[in-house]
């Protein structure tokens, strides 16, 4: 029976907007943050850095793991929630995607993790708007109380990550 190593990844994140939805084509998952990227708290919400923004954003984290899997062990990245659609890359390798703004998910990163080197984790998020982004439209997605523009009782869209 294999075990899974837990790596905590809550410090050092940066975020940037992808107004033109060109980050995948331009391979931002390999390039990492730019000079326009801003520090961001994780867990947290996009609007803490970019008030009122909804659309496509990228989160990046450069980290060297404090622990690494030994023979037969696995590493998994655990996300508490990402609102609403997330795609995840580690060191340029696509780990997967998840749809659903209030549900946790994880990806096995054993093969992509570089144990004693700096790693680049990239997370592309579609935070739906009233206009279609890659087929996602806010009014067509399951959500609790989110509206654009904000209204009384509306919730902010949010993202947070832990590692498992």
From TrEMBL:
<comment type="similarity">
    <text>Belongs to the glycosyl hydrolase 2 family.</text>
</comment>
<dbReference type="InterPro" id="IPR008979">
    <property type="entry name" value="Galactose-bd-like_sf"/>
</dbReference>
<dbReference type="InterPro" id="IPR006104">
    <property type="entry name" value="Glyco_hydro_2_N"/>
</dbReference>
<dbReference type="GO" id="GO:0005975">
    <property type="term" value="P:carbohydrate metabolic process"/>
</dbReference>
<protein>
    <recommendedName>
        <fullName>Glycosyl hydrolases family 2 sugar binding domain-containing protein</fullName>
    </recommendedName>
</protein>
<feature type="domain" description="Glycosyl hydrolases family 2 sugar binding">
    <location>
        <begin position="48"/>
        <end position="134"/>
    </location>
</feature>
<dbReference type="InterPro" id="IPR051913">
    <property type="entry name" value="GH2_Domain-Containing"/>
</dbReference>
<dbReference type="GO" id="GO:0004553">
    <property type="term" value="F:hydrolase activity, hydrolyzing O-glycosyl compounds"/>
</dbReference>
<dbReference type="Pfam" id="PF02837">
    <property type="entry name" value="Glyco_hydro_2_N"/>
</dbReference>
């Amino acid at each position: 029976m294999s075990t899974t190593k837990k790596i905590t990844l809550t410090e050092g994140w940066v975020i940037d907007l992808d107004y033109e939805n060109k980050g995948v084509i331009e391979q931002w998952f390999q390039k990492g943050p730019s000079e326009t990227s801003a520090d961001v708290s994780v867990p947290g919400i996009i609007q803490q850095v970019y008030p009122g923004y909804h659309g496509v954003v990228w989160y990046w984290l450069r980290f060297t793991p404090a622990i690494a899997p030994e023979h037969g062990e696995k590493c998994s990245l655990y996300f508490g929630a990402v609102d609403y659609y997330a795609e995840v890359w580690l060191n340029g390798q696509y780990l997967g995607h998840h749809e659903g703004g209030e549900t946790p998910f994880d990806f096995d990163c054993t093969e992509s993790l570089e144990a004693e080197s700096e790693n680049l984790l990239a997370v592309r998020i579609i935070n739906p708007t009233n206009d279609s982004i890659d087929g996602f439209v806010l009014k067509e997605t399951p959500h609790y109380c989110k509206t654009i523009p904000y209204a009384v009782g509306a919730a902010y869209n949010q993202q947070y990550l832990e590692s498992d």
